[in-house]
Amino acid sequence: MYIPPYFAVTDRDEIFAFIEANAFGQLISIVDGRHCATHIPFLLSPDKSCLLTHVARQNPQHLELEGQEVLVTLAGPHGYISPSWYAGAGVPTWNYQAVHLYGQCRLITEPQQLSAIVEGLSKKYESGFAEPWQPQYGSSMLSAIIGIEITISDIQCQYKLSQNRSTEDQGRVIQQLQSADAHVLADAMAKALTKVQPQR
C-alpha cells in the first residue's frame, strides 16, 4: 500500500502487537484469474514468522492457495475526519490503522496440525470469558476445514492519524472524536502522536 513517510510504522514490536490485537482480516488471493477474499481470524505463530488460519473445505479459495503468494489485510479503528475540526484549512479525510502482510501459503490437512490451529484460535478468543469453551473436534469436523500457514515475507504498516497536522489540529480532532463516542480511534491517535513530531 502507499504509505507517506509520516504515517509509516516500522517498529516491529508495535506492528506485532497490532496484529495480535486486530487479527480478524482478509485473506486475498487469486482464484480462476480473479482476486478473491475471505474474511477470517488469524493466529500469529509464537516466533512471529507465520500466520495460521483455516477455511471451509467448501470454500473454493483453498484450491489454488498452495505455494501462492497471498495478501492479508488487517485494520484497526478508523473514522471520518471533518475539515471543520481544524483551526485552518483542510480537506475531508479518513483516519485509520492498517497492516498488510504478504506471504507464501502452505495448506494443512493433517488432523493434529488442524486441531492445533483450531485450539489456538479458540484459546485466543475464548480467554476473555469467565467460562471459556473447550474445543472438542472430531475427525469429521476437522475434515470439513483446510488449514493455512502463511510464511510472512513482507509487512507494511500505516497509522494515518493526523500526524501531518499541527499539534492544535491534532488535539481538536481527538476532542471531536471523543465527543462522537469514537473513543478507540481517539485513544489510538493520542497514543501514536506521543511518538512523533507533527508535520507542519
Structure characterization notes:
- There is one protein chain.
- The protein is of the alpha+beta class and 200 residues long.
- The chain has one domain: Pnp Oxidase, Chain A (Roll), CATH 2.30.110.10.
- Helices cover 27% and strands 35% of the residues.
- It contains 5 helices and 7 strands.
- The chain has a 7-stranded antiparallel β-sheet.
- Strand 3 and strand 4 form a beta hairpin.
- Helix 4 packs antiparallel against helix 5.
- The protein is elongated and about 60 Å long.
- 26% of the residues are buried.
- The model has no long low-confidence stretch (mean pLDDT 93).
Helix content: 25-40%
Uncertain parts:
none
DSSP strand content: 35-45%
How can the largest sheet be summarized? Answer: 7 strands, antiparallel
What class, by secondary structure content?
Answer: alpha+beta
Q: How many domains make up the 3D coordinates?
A: 1
User: CATH superfamily membership, which one?
Assistant: Electron Transport, Fmn-binding Protein, Chain A
How are the elements arranged and paired?
Elements: H1 12-21, E1 24-31, E2 34-41, E3 43-44, E4 50-56, E5 69-81, E6 93-108, H2 111-126, H3 139-142, E7 145-160, H4 167-179, H5 183-193
Antiparallel strand pairs: 1-2, 1-5, 3-4, 4-7, 5-6, 6-7
Helix pairs in contact: 4-5
List keywords for this structure.
200 residues, alpha+beta, Pnp Oxidase, Chain A, seven-stranded antiparallel beta sheet
Concise account of the structure shown:
This protein is α+β, with helices and mostly antiparallel strands.
